[in-house]
Design a protein that fits this description.
Distance between the termini: 65 Å
Largest sheet: 5 strands, mixed
Number of strands: 5
Strand content: 5-15%
Structural class: alpha/beta
Strand order of the largest sheet: 2-1-3-5-4
Number of domains: 2
Radius of gyration: 25 Å
Length: 540
């Protein structure tokens, strides 16, 4: 391997992108959908203006992809894999602009070694892949504007190139808005960056930024239109996550869980130097525009989604801070380059750190992926590890395989072809596993106060009088309270066994429910009950 230089850094980055792209294609194709991915699946076959949980872009992209590649795991995930390849290149290009090309290569390396980025964002059918790509795409055009040293200032402000860059900024911000609501942190971060840099404040009086904002709002129309017609359900749902819904109280356990989760998702030995770069960016923000820019674009999502856990239970959504950490990979890449160039003890230590990170990530992903597909750990690995991390002794990686045994049972019993039968479950996350196993061939109703997007994708009024196969996972109390009131009778049948590589690893309870009807009990807390009364599932 030739020594990394300014001249060959771009080539090295392209090789990195190509190799990781091919590897991720295999991961995307041969590992099962997680519960979130399976839950989102139905949205790709029912294209809407927007959706309850998320804006629509990743649904639209995968909807197109499955038309090309078929209704497969790779078909759903291909846009994420492709977009992350573009994200890696944009990170290199922006870091090269702010610091140097070698730093850009190392920034891309670190991002591809970080756990949350290298698989969860880069492979999975989630809104994060388009968010990261269009976040950096908008940042790229903003960098071209605010770090431009070509010609006189008046020429720059009035040139056609300037207008083109502001328009492209608006387009990319608009597409980021159609990806995830995080785009608000770009607006706030850029405003703070410009406002705290005296030589850049003239842009506040230029029409370009406001044209970009207008374009963003125009692109956001599908989200606004869907919410307007659905009682602003998506905004209410996402906004409610910032509060507990109970008496206000501080929960330091949630706060420290969030910090620990972020460190674990990023990998602790990457998280620590990344946080160090956040501090350095703060210290150097008044002396360096590059550090100032990365500070303001990183600090807001990291601090907001961490501080809010003091009173809001965000559970295990540790990836919500990811755009901020992505911005910090830029100065981290520069720090890596300086230490390697410096040589000596610091250079050797940095190289060892990089080698260890690369080996850990590659080996861990390889072992977990192989286990997810084959379940080999259940045969050869210490069983106490599963029990330690999952108290009910169910291997959590089972959620990462497709529950094809559900389809096998439906075909065996003749339920799949029976048009008088639909499917149901008392848990929103299980709707996706059922729906993906049946490949969308049956309506799936969620009998719960929290059906989420499922409530908008199947009309229960069209199913009245039909029978249902309700599948649960140790939810007998929910079946009794939330399912039985909607049927004439409910009979439990033999379980569906979820088998991985010849081993039964999970039992799902099965209930045959006859003649679906409105509940005689008043259940205004259930969107299903509201829909059967002709009301919208959420709101007034």
């Amino acid at each position: 391997m030739k020594k990394l230089t300014e001249g060959n850094a771009a080539s090295y980055t392209l090789v990195l992108i190509l190799v990781t792209f091919v590897l991720r294609l295999f991961i995307a194709a041969y590992t099962g959908l997680g519960i979130g991915e399976a839950y989102y699946f139905r949205g790709t076959t029912h294209l809407e203006w927007s959706y309850f949980d998320q804006p629509p872009l990743f649904f639209w992209l995968s909807g197109i992809s499955i038309k090309i590649f078929g209704l497969t795991n790779l078909g759903l995930r291909f846009p994420a894999v492709l977009l992350f390849a573009g994200t890696s290149w944009l990170l290199f290009a922006i870091t090269r602009k702010l610091f140097n090309a070698r730093a850009g290569f190392w920034a891309a390396v670190v991002m591809n070694l970080s756990a949350v980025f290298t698989v969860a964002i880069a492979c999975w059918f989630q809104p994060d892949a388009p968010l990261m790509f269009f976040w950096l795409a908008s940042v790229y055009f903003i960098i071209e504007l605010l770090f431009n040293n070509r010609g006189e200032e008046k020429v720059i402000r009035s040139s056609g190139r300037t207008w083109f860059l502001w328009i492209m900024t608006g387009v990319c911000l608009g597409l980021a808005t159609l990806s995830k609501y995080h785009v608000l942190f770009i607006f706030a971060g850029v405003f703070m960056f410009i406002g705290t840099n005296k030589e850049l404040r003239h842009w506040l009086w230029h029409p370009g930024p406001y044209v970009a904002v207008l374009i963003t709002i125009i692109f956001a129309f599908p989200v606004l239109w869907w919410n307007y017609n659905n009682n602003w359900a998506s905004f209410v749902f996402q906004g409610s996550r910032a509060g507990t819904g109970k008496k206000f109280a501080f929960h330091f356990d949630w706060f420290f869980r969030s910090i620990g989760g972020q460190a674990l998702w990023l990998l602790p030995w990457i998280w620590v130097p990344t946080i160090r770069e956040l501090y350095r960016s703060f210290v150097n923000r008044l002396m360096s525009k590059a550090y100032s820019f990365t500070f303001w674009l990183s600090i807001l999502p990291i601090v907001f989604f961490t501080v809010v856990t003091l009173w809001a239970d965000l559970q295990y959504h540790f990836h919500w801070q990811a755009p901020g950490y992505m911005m910090l990979f830029m100065p981290l890449g520069f720090a890596i380059d300086k230490k390697i160039t410096q040589g000596g003890l610091a250079g050797r230590g940095t190289r060892r750190w990089l080698r260890f990170s690369a080996c850990f990530t590659v080996i861990t992903i390889g072992v977990l992926s192989f286990h997810m597909v084959t379940g080999f750990w259940q045969y050869y690995g210490p069983k106490w590890i599963v029990k330690e991390f999952h108290g009910d002794n169910v291997d959590p990686t089972i959620q990462g395989i497709d529950y094809d045994d559900i389809r096998t049972r439906f075909e065996k019993e003749g339920w799949l072809e029976n048009k008088n039968i639909f499917a149901g479950t008392p848990r929103w996350w299980l709707t996706g596993k059922i729906d993906w196993a049946l490949k969308g061939q049956k309506d799936v109703i969620c009998f719960s106060f929290d059906p989420r997007n499922t409530a908008f994708l199947s009309d229960p009024n069209t199913l009245l009088g039909k029978d249902a196969i309700v599948i649960a996972q140790e939810n007998q109390a929910s079946v009794d309270a939330d399912v039985k009131p909607y049927f004439d009778s409910v009979k439990q049948l033999p379980d569906i066994e979820i088998i991985r590589h010849g081993r039964v690893e999970l039992h799902l309870q099965v209930y045959y429910c006859t003649k679906f009807h409105q509940s005689a009990q008043q259940r205004n807390d259930m969107p299903l009950y509201r829909q059967l009364n002709g009301l919208p599932p959420f709101g007034n």
